[in-house]
Amino acid sequence: MKKYLLGIVGVLALTASGPAGAADMPLKAPPLAPAFNWNRCYVGVHAGWGWGRDRNDFGAAIASGQTENEGFPAEFGPFDHNTSGGVAGAQAGCNHMWAPGWLVGIEGELFWSGIKGSATAPEDGADPGTFSAFESRNLWDLDLAVRLGHVLPGGMDLLYVKGGGVLGRFRYTETHDDFPTTHSCFLITGTGTCSATVNQTVGGWLVGFGWEHVISIPGSWTFKAEFDFIGYPSHNVAYPSAAAAIQNFAVTDSKAIIKVGVNHYFP
After folding, report:
1. Kindly report the CA angle at 141 between 137 and 143, in degrees rounded to 5?
2. Residue 199, phi then psi, degrees to nearest 5
3. Does pLDDT of 66 surpass 80?
């Protein structure tokens, strides 16, 4: 009987000490998620909306024409106008971490642009046409910029500024009734006016800032939101009237763009 009692006491003692012993054992910490590596190259896509301003001297060119001496200034403008439209394209770049939390990189973008606008002025009664108009249309842009960024604590977010050069393709459409027949122009039936189109590639500059956020850990995907301002210097557009005193007139374009996109970072 004594042996049985000693056995029961021993079992109870082991049972009582079990939880305490387990509690005394150190817990194993879960593995930490790997930090996102910003120090690599990437490709991505983006889309957004832009708005801007076209300033031009189309009215001065019209006023210099051989038949524009009636003294009716309405048809001479002004033809300055606002522009707006969507953009969509792709980007590629590489980052270099030059100090803890700081990176410098280079990024190129190519995007289609639907940013456009126009201004129309009524013709005077002495002319056969009914209106004069000038339209500007941005077709596409290609830019190359340097990015300077700071990775926020935690490594999931990047704030950056950027600046560089840009090439923009534009289409300008001039509509008026006094383009001479010696120049090729599209006659608008029933209006007495004709339209001439000029395509130009213009160099400019870009500045912007943005935010990039990691959306997959572990992984290689980020989301970005960015604001850019693009300016193009004044450049000349041909006025297709051989008898006009002004054969070329100045045009200046600028625009701001807000866009969002995603980047995929290579291993």
Report:
1. 155
2. -105, 135
3. no
141, 109 Cβ separation under 8 angstroms: yes
CB distance 96 to 104 below 8 Å? yes
What residue ranges define each of the domains in the chain, with the CATH number in brackets?
39-265 (2.40.160.20)
Is the separation of the CB atoms in 194 and 184 below 8 Å?
Answer: no
The Cα-based distances of 16 to 4, 34, 85 in angstroms read 19, 41, 76
d(CA 51, CA 74): 27
Phi, psi of 233 (to 5 degrees): -70, 165
Q: Is 168 exposed, middle or buried (0-12, 13-18, 19+ CB in 10 A)?
A: buried
* pLDDT recorded at residue 219: 74
Q: Under DSSP, is residue 16 helix (H, G, I), strand (E, B) or coil?
A: helix
Percentages (nearest 5) of helix, strand, coil residues in the chain: 10, 55, 30
pLDDT band for position 62 (50/70/90)? confident
**Counting every residue, how long is the chain?**
267
